[in-house]
């Protein structure tokens, strides 16, 4: 293994501690019914559309993420063992400062109670980072945070796909861009262990791969024709989230509207 002694133990610890992020923090008494029945049981109506348990879970998780990732980013800037880690810390602070404003406004409008401190698990991660030093700190910073972002990434997409609430839909879109930006910056540190991520993900999957068979090594691949419109079609838009400054993700967006003065 690379970088530090006992890396395998560190990987195992990261997988175990971050694994809980794959599961929602909400619960209700009876989950034995159909998916539709469970959806109805946890849903309340609002002026912005139905608000499901999964919607509320995302709101809480966005808040929780900021409560521990922003301090982790501040610590990275203060320690600054490398330029890349300092830059990643900067993005964590900027991203979660912005998201926190948005989630507080949304939560107030939807009457969702938010936590005010990291949960016990997240406090443990912060303690791990505080206790680590040197290469161990660099490795833990990149991999703890990258694993946490990787776990919530598909959850954001699932809520963005299924929610019927316009406020939650916009929050999911905003969060998606921020999480992708943070993943990108953490990977730019050069410390992310992609083998550990792949093995962790494979361990959680129960489905068999359905992709094409493995390629024949050394054999040329057939070329694929481009997907493009026919002649005479004029387009004017640009791809969304165009990279800015190399590999960074464009997270620029208007400030949230705070009509209820939640941020005052």
Automatic annotation (TrEMBL):
Residues 54-187 form the DUF4142 domain. This is DUF4142 domain-containing protein. InterPro entries: DUF4142. Residues 203-264 are annotated as: Disordered. Signal peptide: none annotated. It comes from Streptomyces sp. R41. Pfam families: DUF4142 (PF13628).
